[in-house]
Amino acid sequence: MSLLFILLLTIISMIFFISRFGGKPYPPGPRRLPVIGNTLMMACLTHRGLAKLASRYGGLFYLRMGAQDIVVVSTPDMARQILQTHQDQISNRPTSIALDYLSYGRANMAFADYSPWWRQMRKICVMKLFSRARVESWNSVRDELNHMLRDVASNANQAINLGELVFGFTEKIIYRAAFGSRLSDGGTEFIKIMQEFSKLFGSFNVCDFVPWMSRADPQGLKARLRKARGSLDTFIDSIIDQHIIKRKGKNIGDKDMVDELLAFYTEEGEAKAESDDLQATIKLTKNNIKGIIMDIMFGGTETVAAAIEWAMSELLKNPEELRKTQEELSNVVGLHRCVEEGDLEKLTYLKCVLKETLRLHPPLPFLPRAAAEDVYVAGYYIPAGSRVIINLWAMGHDGKCWNDEPEAFKPSRFLDVGAPDYRNNNFEFIPFGTGRRSCPGMQLGLHAFEMGLAHLLHCFNWELPDGMKPSQVDMSDMYGLSAPKATRLIAVPTPRLLCPIC
Ligand code: HEM
Hints:
Blueprint: H1 2-21, H2 47-57, E1 60-65, E2 68-73, H3 76-85, H4 97-102, H5 116-129, H6 135-154, E3 160-161, H7 162-179, H8 185-202, H9 221-248, H10 257-262, H11 278-281, H12 286-317, H13 319-333, H14 348-360, E4 366-370, E5 375-377, E6 380-382, E7 387-391, H15 392-396, H16 442-459, E8 460-463, E9 490-495
Parallel strand pairs: 2-7
Antiparallel strand pairs: 1-2, 3-9, 4-7, 5-6, 8-9
Helix pairs in contact: 6-7, 6-16, 7-12, 8-9, 12-14, 12-16, 13-14
The structure holds protoporphyrin IX containing FE (HEM).
Protoporphyrin IX containing FE (HEM) binds next to helix 12 and helix 16.
């Protein structure tokens, strides 16, 4: 009887395999087991794990996890194919149960499928939320920076948790740009909810790959997501309602991001044909607004904080690079005043430090895409619905792209004529993505990163605590929605300027 059962199972598996994979030129990849495919390799789905697999299977390889087709891209040539040549077919975002909860059922911009509706939403965000003209966002960087520097100054000559400090700094910038008020005690509740979502994103949820298990929720993750969403709703609903009341007054004063979005608010929400008059053509529901706010909070907080913490860690690990960067600040700015926005253009080496940090430690190590239809890339078949993962981390560490010691922190590589820049379509260096789904917050993110780092380095000298040697700085990373340091950076500041701090 059991022999018959095994025989039947083998035949069914073979029929499934032949009907699914037979004849189609799928990209290469590790051998798949019948029915479960590569599900046992789930632990490899991190930026480091996938980079290792790429060194064996090449720049475009295929995995099948449960019911999900996954295509991994790890070379600039293949990234160009996906992000440029085939962007019409591969511009959707993959989804997951956690994302569905956070994005209000994909009512947001970051995870909505590519469509006329998404284009309208993106236009609103670019023009109304991220433009240089939205003074309030840029002011919040300056103001919160001053608060952070005063915090550091009041703890001078002591070991401080610099990682925690910069995370607090970026949370405050983005919170203020979004909601118009400073992060107070009520706001820390909101940060706790965000942290819970962040943890839930980082957790591997078996139901994402085996959907029929979803109802059973074997890991209890759905229950936690439901609870986190409930708390989030209570918090954001009350903020939106306060803004709606404020809008009924005649003069609403400085506009924060919620005010900008409420200009498009309707109870029902509907997308219409494209036109240049945005307000006449698109309406946003409360869920759209809440989804976009979460895009901004998640997109803007961890990314900038992780970048600053990684840059400071690399500089403390490489004292000669720290010396060169501070020397440039002394020469350009002088020790009698703080850095001003007008100085940034002249800080060439600092800009190289930013780029080298984003090369080695891209805050978002993957660009996530999904194929809307069957497509052939470089002769390989990618079925509709596949998750396409572009592994930025792998390209940043690849000796074929960066032949001068790819693992070393060498900002000077970006001084070379023709070195990659954020916008010149060098697919080996795209920390903000590229193409139609690229980061709309790039200018604001770079500004906060550059201002934060310049001030920390100009106002203070930094040392490692307790006689720790530079080689002992822990550079391991975590894997979740973003890739921050696994352990927070602890360092000792001493005042460097000949004048009081800002
Ligand atoms: C150092 C800072 C930052 C880095 C490295 C970064 C990186 C990225 C990357 C790699 C993507 C995906 C792009 C793609 O798929 O092609 C992205 C998307 C996005 N980022 Fe950023 N980001 C940063 C700062 C910000 C800030 C400050 C905000 C908002 C305040 C923001 C908002 C977004 C949003 C809303 C998206 C989704 C865009 C879409 O799908 O249309 N980011 N970011």
